[in-house]
Design a protein that fits this description.
The chain is an alpha+beta fold. It folds into 2 domains: about 30 residues, no CATH class; about 110 residues, Endonuclease, Chain A (3-Layer(aba) Sandwich), CATH 3.40.960. The chain has 6 helices and 6 strands. The protein has a 4-stranded mixed beta sheet, with helices on both faces. The protein has a two-stranded antiparallel ribbon with strand order 1-2. Strand 5, helix 4 and strand 6 form a beta-alpha-beta unit. The N and C termini lie far apart (about 60 Å).
Length: about 150
């Protein structure tokens, strides 16, 4: 097998490139992940870790939803992507973009931990997944549905 792998890397540049050339979908390597962190700045000046987070932050801003970035969960090192303030109430809701759900066991464990923390601390959570943002023509309706009790 080692000879085949070396030949594929020599001819195609990588094992995954050879798999693609054969018409199959390769496993993602650490260097070829679906998501890479890209710092971006939202309309309101918030720094976001991805284009997807930028879309959400800009949507919150355009819909006059008061929000903060990177808010700590109580008594932990975990941070929520956003905390949304509810008008006329002294209450915050955490908003998380789970963009890498089902991408790695470690990330999925962090999602479960954050959900448990919200339950334990009686914090409402609005989870957002890639299918809520893409295709982009459904973003507006999907986010309005997620935030229907806030706007």
């Amino acid at each position: 097998m080692e000879g085949i792998v070396k030949s594929c890397i020599k001819i195609f540049g990588s094992w995954n490139n050879a798999i693609q050339a054969a018409g199959f979908i390769p496993n993602r390597s650490h260097d070829n992940r679906m998501y890479k962190r890209v710092s971006t700045k939202a309309i309101d000046g918030h720094l976001c870790d991805s284009v997807s987070e930028l879309l959400i932050d800009n949507w919150l801003y355009k819909n006059n939803i008061l929000h903060e970035r990177d808010v700590y969960y109580p008594k932990t090192h975990h941070k929520a992507d956003w905390a949304v303030s509810i008008k006329n109430k002294n209450k915050k809701i955490f908003v998380e973009y789970f963009g890498l759900a089902n991408d790695s066991p470690r990330y999925d464990r962090a999602i479960k931990e954050k959900k448990k923390l919200c339950h334990k601390n009686k914090i409402s959570l609005v989870p957002i997944y890639p299918q809520n943002l893409y295709p982009k023509e459904f973003l507006e309706d999907n986010l309005k549905e997620k935030f229907k009790n806030i706007i």
